[in-house]
Amino acid sequence: MIADKMKPLMGNNSAIRTMFEEGDKMRAEYGPENVYDFSLGNPDAPVPAEVKQSIIDILNEEDPTALHGYMSNAGFEDVREAIAQSLNRRFGTAFDHGNILMTVGAASGLNVALKTILNPGEEVIVFAPYFLEYNWYVNNYDGKVVQAPTDQETFYPDLEAFEKLIGDKTRVVLINTPNNPTGVIYSEETIRQIADILERKQKELGRTIFLISDEPYRELAYGDVEVPYVTKYYDNTIVAYSYSKSLSLPGERIGYLVIPSELEESQLVFDTASNANRIIGCVNAPSLQQKMIARCVDVKVDLDYYDKNRTALYEGLKDCGFDCVKPEGAFYMFLKSPVADENEFCAEAKKHNILMVPGSAFACPGYVRLAYCTSYDTIVNSMDGFRRLADHYGLR
Amino acid sequence: MIADKMKPLMGNNSAIRTMFEEGDKMRAEYGPENVYDFSLGNPDAPVPAEVKQSIIDILNEEDPTALHGYMSNAGFEDVREAIAQSLNRRFGTAFDHGNILMTVGAASGLNVALKTILNPGEEVIVFAPYFLEYNWYVNNYDGKVVQAPTDQETFYPDLEAFEKLIGDKTRVVLINTPNNPTGVIYSEETIRQIADILERKQKELGRTIFLISDEPYRELAYGDVEVPYVTKYYDNTIVAYSYSKSLSLPGERIGYLVIPSELEESQLVFDTASNANRIIGCVNAPSLQQKMIARCVDVKVDLDYYDKNRTALYEGLKDCGFDCVKPEGAFYMFLKSPVADENEFCAEAKKHNILMVPGSAFACPGYVRLAYCTSYDTIVNSMDGFRRLADHYGLR
């Protein structure tokens, strides 16, 4: 009854989804306050008050037929200009509305970008661990995902190995920084090195290689860490952005693509992407949310909310003797499993009502992902369980 | 620079889009009140007041983090249940939330449905004239569109020809009633006949054939005409619905699929469609608009707004001697061109500042489409031009 291409998806029940269902069962059995669910990346920092106020103001001020009506497939021009100017102020770029294409979140943005540029059989290089949903996006256009390794201490790209993987089928390199699942942010030097390799390979192979930067976690960077703006380092970059995390509204599906003027045949790519936005069925990003963004373009959630969690969880796990990279961004921590089979570790943790996602769900067995977009209490109260886990594995 | 599959799209500048740009030029030159633009199907009946009030109430009453947060890929259960119950009250169906899958408008709903069930090389039968965008949706999944003819007087399907086109590659029959571009509504008898043919062919060919009913214009039916609810006549039906026209909010991208329990392996198809909704990049329908729909489930725009236009335009054109089927639904009229080449007719009309879309943009040369979702004044004031056009062609 269903299309052949969908069958593998339906066979593999996602590890995260399975976790979620188990979590529900456990919450019903033990009470929600006694279940420490680190499985889901569902942002829970409060939605900034400006969001609600802006929507109400817009509804009161604007003509409803225009407000809720069709606009260009790329989105409202004033909204796109407001975003471009905000990026320019913050990152020293030189965008205008012609570089910004509003999308139904970053997931849709990635699909629009891939629909625009990827041919069947062409390769998309990703750095493992990575968000496995990318496999499905690439599969939508009959491309092939090629996994490049990262250093297992830092989760930075292994650049030597990466360069060797680039060949005459490579069309896209897809990076995600701040990273899901590791929380790592690539330094300016790393971005520069990736750009250098791509420039060199473009010349050597005589073909265009796009760098797609998936940036739903851009605003979630802690302390003084900077997230380099990738278009400044490599011309053929497309940025996919989402407000899901920066404004805590993942259900609203609002984001954008940046297609810089420096990109080869930029106007053609932009126009094609606008059409792709239409024909994949989105047509345009939701109009009221677009208008809200224009008024909230520099607003973001309270970062301290996640930062407090980050510090508590990292310090707590370190004290227990667990091994992990201190995340600099996003709201994930990627913990080394004390045993080779991280599924065993997850099962053991479940005995203490702690839910984590196995690293194999991110193409990186031997690790687990903890999403710390939870209440602070969840983290504090989970520590007793983690200590007992540490004892079980003789870590302290 | 762009994917091969996108190249034909970028080569063919859409006739409707070309019209739109010409319209802009003409409005600048002659003043907007002197341009009679019947090219765009952009709903302009006022958005019902309940929409604004509901959104404000929801923002004031609901917890923002849950309101704007992730939900199941199929949508909020309470919203889906409200829609199911509304359909049951109005059409005597027996749906519940498990049959309703919220989508980013009907365009996205069609893509979700096709992604779910269509294999490369399989055929989708459509009745010409039809919305050519269907070609792109089918092409997204490497299917093939097969055009079935309609009676050129009534635009009802030529059922004998239709039956002959069904073969062992047929996977989907896609209908659109009320119809874009003709405004025709299929009678209960026609739906029953289509269903009978499909039942017979399913048995004969030993394969499942889906009937997809694209219904963005369902609520726009004038007078006492009923739009039969297709799931009642054929089990393997999927309905794609949109609120774009019924609530005048095409920019918001909110609609749903109905996957009835009677459909073969309904649960599998529903679950696959939910996953398809995620992996094509939509993830879910915009959350605030979903919640609005639950409160506005029985609200619709003032039909008299369009009906008044319909009558004025139809009567006016008839008086001029033009030939067209009186539309019973949607906001389109499909006029027979007085000369074989309707592009010539469109060019002649432009001399009177009248913009219409050639029928070839709907796979039906020799006709033109007029979208009467305009102001009433536009229709009244256009009549002088139409009279002169009629004189030019010796129609009166």
From TrEMBL, chains A, B:
Its cofactor is pyridoxal 5'-phosphate. It comes from the Bacteria. It is an enzyme of class 2 (transferase). Signal peptide: none annotated. Its EC number is 2.6.1.-. Keywords: Aminotransferase, Transferase. It holds the Pfam family Aminotran_1_2. Residues 34-373 form the Aminotransferase class I/classII large domain. GO terms for molecular function: pyridoxal phosphate binding; transaminase activity. InterPro entries: Aminotransferase_I/II_large, NHTrfase_class1_PyrdxlP-BS, PyrdxlP-dep_Trfase, PyrdxlP-dep_Trfase_major, PyrdxlP-dep_Trfase_small. Belongs to the class-I pyridoxal-phosphate-dependent aminotransferase family. This is Aminotransferase. It comes from Lentihominibacter faecis.
